[in-house]
Fold:
Amino acid sequence: MDSLMERAAPCPAAQAGSVLLPALHLPLLPPHLYRPATSHEHKLNFRKSKEACLTYIQDAMLQKQWKRAAEFLTFYIESLEKDFSTEYMGPSEMIWRIGTEILCHHSYSSMKDFNSFIEQMKTLGVKRYLKVCLEHAFHLLCNGQTDEAYQNLSLAESWRFGEQTTAQDKELKLIQAYRGLLDYYSWSKQKNVLLEYDKEGFEDLSVEQEMHSSFRKAAVNLKEIIQIPGVWDVFVKCYVDLLEFYGDHDEARQVLSEYAYNSKFPANPNAHVYFYQFLKRHGEPKKSLISVLKILHDIVPSHELMIDFNTMLQKSKKRKKRRLGLEVIFAALDYAGWKENVKAWSCLARQVKQIIISEKHLDWIKQEWNSRKDWWPAFHFSRYLAKRNWQENESLAYEKALVAGILLGKDCKYFKYVSHQGCKDQKKRLRTLKKFVNKHSPVYLRISGLSDSSVQT
Amino acid sequence: MAFPAALFPSYFGAGPPGEAGGVAPAAGWGEPRRRSCPAAAGRARAGSLPTSLLCPSCVPTRVAGSPRSCLRTSFTAGSFTGSSGQLGHFFVDHPEDAFGSLGQLLHKNFYLGNAKLRRQARDTTIRMTSLVEEINRLEARHGCPQQHFTSRVRWFSHLCRDWLFEVPLDLLADCVHDELVLQWASLLFDDSSTGGALAWLPPEDAGAHTGCLVYPGGQAMNQLYFQDVVVGEVPRTRGSPAQFELNGRIRQVAAAQLDGEGFVGVRSDYHCGVWKVPGRTGAAPTPLQVIRTNVPASCLTVSPHLPGELAVCTQSGAVYLWSVETGLQQLRQDPQTMFFRDHSPWRWSEFTAHPRVLSCADRTGLQCLDARAPGRCHLDFFKVGEEAGCQQGERVVLPMYLGRAHPSQHLVATQFAVYVMDERLPLVPVLKWAHMMKDPPLFAHVVPGGPGRSHKVLLGASRTQELLLLQYTGGSESACQLAGPPQKLHSISGCLQHLPAQLPHRHWLLQQRLGAPAAGLAAVPHARGQRESLLVFQLSEAGDVFYQTLTHEAAQPRAPDGEDKDEAASSASPMLEAPFGSTPGSPPGSGGEEEEEEIFYLSNLEVIVNEEEEEEEEGTPAASEETQHPEEPCASPHPLPAVPSPAAAVRYRRWLKALFRDWQELPRHTGVRGPPTISQKRLFTRKDLGPPAGTSDLHVRARQQLRRAMREQGRIRRWDLGPDPQPLPQPVEPAAWPDALSARLTAAWAGDLSHWWEERLGLNMAQRQRALRERRRRQKRARGHRSLSASFTSSVTYQSELSELSDGAPAAAPAPPLSPGHPEALPQVFTEAWGGSLAGGSAPGGSTPRRPPPSPPPAEPLLSSQTLRSRGIPKERRKMLRDYLAVCTEGPPEPLPEPPGSQPPSQGGQLCIPSSQSQLSGSQPRRKRPRMGF
Structure:
């Protein structure tokens, strides 16, 4: 019937029967002539049933009824018969997507089924050939079939199909990159083998040669993709690893700084982290480390490296850097994710304590505190939090109580609660804390701006 | 919080969104990212593909661009969604409106057959067949790159363009354009309920199981309820809800738990309010502050960091930080959208990981604003564009801070996809998934997964009630990944199939009720021992709260990532039910389930149900789908219908009962529906209306008369059995006017003037005497046969009399007699009434009226007031009845049929009281009847 209708139609009909031109319909035709008896009706019906079928498939899949979905999919395949659609996603792509998903979850599917399905899908549409290949490789990798995945990627890399190859340039680059990644993977395996041999005093030229060829293949592909703007953490790391192994530090440094500082790339904190780690590995001077971390601090003040940064700055002799350190740790503690970070609180407590004891630079604290005094008490130093912190993590409570006692005075709820509890429990540490805070209570007045000159000691 | 050491690779491009996507209902499937690599692959984890390649999904009828831009492009591209296409549809669907008059004028001149036109016809008719064929071919070739118009079509279109259309084409196009803009705007983004109006406040300490559900209800959804709910396998409400009446429809309820206290923000169009709910259960919520806005507010979120802080956005583009203590601080006032121009006034704001930094969203993206320096500090966080791999026409519909799952993660939902964003990596989504929902998700709820577990995100759509569960992992140690395939939960409307069968109008009502758009969503994780479950509450616009339970199940060994998955299995059950009357005509709620394995009946429901509010709950932990039978017979379009457990069925029935009860009470309260009825309660006591102790003859007869009248489809006439309170109007008695003129007029009126004239002249005196004699004889005979057995013969005589009368014209009677077959004939009643004893003497068909045997007068006992009282006849009527019966009994049991003239006029008054005796006993009253016809 389908084919018959097909022949009757003068031209292969678009799937979208409803994609009408501005219809010129003649006046007052009897209804059956509005759509003259071509295959039009049929196409509409076919389209409708296709849509219905697709809905059922979706429905089944969303309810994890893979079997049911699979059965519907076999019906849906019929829609390929008239795949002349100009739609964004035609039936062949849908079949690929749905089929892949079903095969991934269907309890009776095997890797063999999956592979043969994908091979069919590859022949079904050249427009997304490379994408299908890439997904296939991912699937193989996920199932531990690294070699097959590698083969697959190499095959896809050499695929040429006129314009289609250039149209799928992005996928091609990705395929090359992933192949490079697998090359890197085998390189690092061979490297480990060689290192093992080295230990035992062997030497194996063939392995070494293989390793070098892996390196070359990996390096070429990886280098290419990381020049395109994107998030390439894995590729960059591998590439830098390769370069470092062969001692090309300048290139590695170049790559990393490009990855971190090229404005076309997204502001990826990892790029800065990699650069920092690289510099640290190679014993670069503190100054350059600090400058890298300073930039990281500017874009992500809540990054976990801020603790390192703060420690580094605190140790510095320069006042400016110590000042920056205080800023960094205050800024980090602004974030909800750091609320219960003992390390950060102890950093802050230590630095604040230092400042108090030295009685210099109280204005630093004052300045930092000024922008926070309206919300830190509720955010960090509420009685509820004191209770909870004390129950869950005493040392956190201790550090926070110290900071609270200094910043808010000994009457603040947090400090009062913690010191009270601490005295009850006969904690020595708390007693010293209390003594310290009591001793430096005037500081609070100065910090909070309540002080006048007479209070100054 | 750590940042993942390596993210999945993806391209990053800047600029406007890439390709225009189309319908892609399967876009969410087949991506690799939800499968993580085995450890063997080391760092080579399965990467996400470049996001720009992802195909979005949307509903076929949805427009993939902003309405305006789509319209603009559609004019050139002629796409399905464009006005030209819409015009085409209009012509097809409403040809009369489009071409009516000219069509009528011209249709003779257009020939559509295949035959050749004959010569004469050719002068006035043109053959259109080939033109139509060509148009069809054009349609079929649509999309073909070598599309060209043939000259004939162009010729025709040039020729007709100006005059063929009923409404000038340009004008029509303008109208269609305007209408489309409006329709699409409302269809695409109905944003008033964004965020949802259902909130859950968890118990302060994890061990307690009583939380608080906050939801709107009432007639106009203007009542705010705080209902304590005990979470368990089956949630139960506890106590009656605290209730606040607001002066506007509640659009959104947002809540956050802080320092053991709950803060609830409530948004209606022009007012926003904040309530504080003390941590301990049972304590009453207290309203804290209310603000009024000049422009409708579009967003209200409660800070998860600082107590008493909220973010408010209005449709004028203003964003405020609202602190209960310090008041409002305006952060931004910009009627323009952020990244490109979009006409939507919708704005949204959420808190971020930094308590002083707010995210601020419009349809084009999100920015982060620092409240300490709002003018200077802002950061582009999410852009609808190439950065996130969006497609043309994509718009933000719901941003949400996922702080409970991960302090720096945000969810951004568009009509095509959901994105998980990390504040530390702006513009690049760390997770993207095309959700394939038919309606954009307007509600979302996140359930944090804890260490090593996946976070669950629930997405809910309003109109279609879709509910999708998405699980993802990562964010701090590892990169974000979807865990397992997404899962569809039951919708409220799915309940319908589990409810007992209803009468059609009730079914319709139920359908309406259950199909109401969803209005909110909340989820509560619950663990008891090893058994973990997730309770999902859904609120519908009709005010119903439904819930379903998802039970947790450890991942299958197959799953490579070893993630735990939550398997949904359950059905939605009505949880709370607002009074029906509260939202008459409002759409129903959502909540249905397709699989129910167990349903539990809520035992203490009765306590909650009261007149004002019905609350019912049903829990239905469902079994996982994975456990379904391997041998499913064959794919059926509908998922296997699950049968609700008996307990659930009971619960459903109970809910139904409450619903219908409210529904029935509705007209009484509102007076809207149904015709007005007058209660009889005041007129008669129940005793009056009740049947007398013993069924009297009267009743039997009346009933039989009724029955007979029904069978014969005749009219029910005045009862001649009982006292008739409405006496007939006194007929004019010709005999009372004995003068010649009157007699003549009477005769003329009756139509036999000639007869009268003859009589007057004495021409037929002899004939008359004969007739008179004959009649006397007959009457005498009839008197002689006054037994029951004679009734048959008497009826025969009646027949003969009739026939005689009919051919002999009116002999004595001035009025024409009844026609013989008249079904109204009253006497039948008696034949029927007596039928039992007559043994076939009565013809049930009643086609031949019979003269009934005279009935004995009602027995004297009727007259005694005692019997009357015992029959429940009111005192005032007793006398009447007694008088009446006295007349009957005093009169001759069988009054002789007197010619009308012989009756003294004075008797007229009495006679016209319809007495069964007099009427039944002879033809005399019948003679009068024709007058009544006038």
User: Anything to note?
Assistant: The first helix of chain A runs from residue 2 to 8. The mean pLDDT of chain A is 82. Residues 304 and 332 of chain A are 9 Å apart (CA to CA).
